[in-house]
Amino acid sequence: MGRTLAEKVWDDHVVRRAEGEPDLLFIDLHLLHEVTSPQAFDGLRKNGRQVRRLDLTIATEDHNTPTIDIDKPIADPVSRVQLETLRKNCAEFGVRLHPLGDVEQGVVHVVGPQLGLTQPGTTVVCGDSHTSTHGAFGALAFGIGTSQVEHVLATQTLPLAPFKTMAITVEGELPDGVTAKDLILAIIARIGTGGGQGYVLEYRGSAIEKLSMEARMTICNMSIEAGARAGMIAPDKTTFDYLEGRVHAPQGEDWDAAVEYWKTLKTDEDAVFDAEVVIKADELSPFVTWGTNPGQGAPLSANVPDPASYEDASERLAAEKALEYMGLTAGQPLRDINVDTVFVGSCTNGRIEDLRNAAAVIEGRKVADGVRMLVVPGSVRVALQAMDEGLDKVFTAAGAEWRHAGCSMCLGMNPDQLAPGERSASTSNRNFEGRQGKGGRTHLVSPQVAAATAVLGHLASPADLSDVRTPVEA
Amino acid sequence: MEAFTTHTGRAVPLRRSNVDTDQIIPAHWLKKVTRDGFEDGLFEAWRKDSEFVLNKPERKGATVLVAGPDFGTGSSREHAVWALQNYGFKTVISSRFADIFRGNSLKNGLLTVVLDQKVVDALWELTERDPNAEITVDLQDRQVRAEGVTADFELDENARWRLLNGLDDISITLQNEPDIASYEARRPAFKPSTIQA
């Protein structure tokens, strides 16, 4: 019987397979950041262990880093200690680090792909659940805990429990104005936050094949929000074109050998998935969340659902609690929800195409009075590219704040946070209670919806905007 | 890792689904660089409400958390496990756990037990009715016992063996060093390297 893409990559990394034991898998790339690594380095020190493969390990600073005044000392002493700890650990063990201020610094899941380190058929791990992002390249990529970070540092392997496979087949074409973000939010609403549990998802079908690498990363990024172990997309010409010429992509003969191998990385015709979900792309429209988990979403044109309409008792209770926390009423049109803050950024939507998409909507328009809009590039490279294209000027002319790269308001570990009761439209990945600041309320949206929402002050899509634009003053 | 064989203790019934790791331990606690001192951050936002179940005097000293489905979703933060352990929990029961949280818990000796929602309902009813009711989680026999409840649970033999003996994963893996070295020797040359040219 044929094998799925995930099974092929898994099989190619088995170091040891024995009866009654989990497979021991080799890890091709280990990404580190400051939050989930300090206790792992402590463990190495305590046991007199070294980092086994420095050549497969790389670190960046992202969660705690400020997005303004980055040349000044970090104000929060606890954040500062965490960053200093990473710097000390990387120096002591010899790990390559891109600290705040470095040109390669940025959100770990933006940095790996842009350096060309994330490649098809590799295993990629990081102490961060959004490691699933890298699956867009046909890599088997997943988030791990700190004990596993230590395990990979010491052994470059992980013992892993077997997984099931689920095909998410998206046929047709996404309508105009409907993005990868809308698609993944719709998928999560369909299968639920636990729907992917135990599965590696493979996104496939004509609508997926048409997507750019950056859009594919947005989709794989949020696989974890469906509870999945990982999300993958088979590599194709789009993948190879994205990688060719990047700093760490293979060169010369290695490139040819790599591409030859990468071309074998697709699910065999006779392979069988453990589960399959089919989505019709043509039926989708801009999608937003109304609740406090990423599965609580609906088309922007819909109303806030009535908890009483849920048959399942725990879903009903969850919806009641969500509406209470979010300060929403059942039946209220989603378009009537006013926001205080708009956040464009994160490992979900902080890449150059995302910034271009948001800029195209907001160019010649103004952020509504009383609304704060933060634009935080996913990496310094993304920021430089955007500035080269003049996107920073488009945002600032509209009244948005152009910030330095980092995780920022996605989780508010740095000073970029919502105040209690404040409401955001955010291109990030989680709408959990307090995620963006204590008492903050989050609606997950695409970059285009974020930009339109900033202009109108309530949840909106670009289609809701008039064609009138104010020319930017020179 | 601390070994887990059998534990008996009073319970905290947590009637919520989708308790994500941001609720278990909010992000600002993640700035700490140690594995301890997270107990005050556990369910920090909810604990501001005096009616929250963890704040009830009769739940003081409880060691078994009985949670709703999809417990531990979201972030990979192992701090969520440390916070539960620092607070005093030895075991968590739910009908469904998020994968990463489950993996993290078993690596730290916090036993996560999957039971049918019907059994979880019964444990909720029992422990809400009688805060002194005790629940026994027996890893030896893979069974949960409480007044009127006897339920077997599954846990793969390898994970069970490691928990019962409190074994450290890294030491076990390093026993297979020749396998790792031999795999490394046959990796293709085109695989990525982080070394700067």
TrEMBL record, chain A:
SUPFAM superfamilies: Aconitase iron-sulfur domain. CDD domains: IPMI (cd01583). It comes from the Bacteria. Residues 418-442 are annotated as: Disordered. Pathway: Amino-acid biosynthesis; L-leucine biosynthesis; L-leucine from 3-methyl-2-oxobutanoate: step 2/4. Residues 7-457 form the Aconitase/3-isopropylmalate dehydratase large subunit alpha/beta/alpha domain. Belongs to the aconitase/IPM isomerase family. LeuC type 1 subfamily. Catalyzes the isomerization between 2-isopropylmalate and 3-isopropylmalate, via the formation of 2-isopropylmaleate. This is 3-isopropylmalate dehydratase large subunit. The lineage of its organism: Bacteria, Bacillati, Actinomycetota, Actinomycetes, Kitasatosporales.
From TrEMBL, chain B:
Belongs to the LeuD family. LeuD type 1 subfamily. It comes from the Bacteria. Pathway: Amino-acid biosynthesis; L-leucine biosynthesis; L-leucine from 3-methyl-2-oxobutanoate: step 2/4. Catalyzes the isomerization between 2-isopropylmalate and 3-isopropylmalate, via the formation of 2-isopropylmaleate. Heterodimer of LeuC and LeuD. The keyword Amino-acid biosynthesis applies. The keyword Manganese does not apply. NCBIfam families: leuD (TIGR00171), PRK01641.1 (NF002458). It catalyses: (2R,3S)-3-isopropylmalate = (2S)-2-isopropylmalate. Its EC number is 4.2.1.33. Residues 1-117 form the Aconitase A/isopropylmalate dehydratase small subunit swivel domain. Pfam families: Aconitase_C. It comes from Streptomyces violascens. This is 3-isopropylmalate dehydratase small subunit. The gene is leuD. InterPro entries: 3-IsopropMal_deHydase_ssu, Aconitase/3IPM_dehydase_swvl, AconitaseA/IPMdHydase_ssu_swvl, IPMI_Swivel, LeuD. Keywords: Amino-acid biosynthesis, Branched-chain amino acid biosynthesis, Leucine biosynthesis, Lyase.
